[in-house]
Automatic annotation (TrEMBL):
CDD domains: PKCI_related (cd01276)
Protein name: Histidine triad (HIT) family protein
InterPro entries registered for this protein in UniProt: Histidine_triad_HIT, HIT-like, HIT-like_sf
GO MF terms held by the record: catalytic activity
Catalytic residues (positions): 98 (tele-amp-histidine intermediate)
Record motif Histidine triad motif, residues: 96-100
A Pfam entry, by short name: HIT
Every HIT domain range: 5-112
Amino acid sequence: MTDCLFCRIVAGEIPATLVAETDRVIAFRDITPKAPVHVLVVPKTHVANVTEAAAQIPDVLAEMVAVAQQVADAECGGEFRLVFNSGEAAGQSVFHAHAHVMGGKHLAWEDA
Ligand code: 5GP
Ligand code: ZN
């Protein structure tokens, strides 16, 4: 069994509220939302961060962006902030690449 939280969510071992899924990507609600819409888009393959995703699974990374757009189209008028924290100092706490899709209100840049 893996000790990666998001691998375990992908495997269905830990429950999450799914909002979208493709063969290679899942999207589920953040457990501690920081905006009215706060969804995590995650590759089913384990890579540690967005840079590894770009290098190792670039087509999946592009699919993550497309899924982010679909979530935003469904939930917040198609407009959204997409955040990849990379490294502890940047706020990354789960070391399985994920995009935060945030929206549903006017986001000031200072809210970043
Ligand atoms: P990071 O800080 O690594 O950029 O983002 C990790 C995100 O995962 C955080 O926003 C946190 O709220 C969310 N998170 C942590 N544990 C869980 C969980 O068990 N389920 C869900 N749905 N989200 C989680
Ligand atoms: Zn993982």
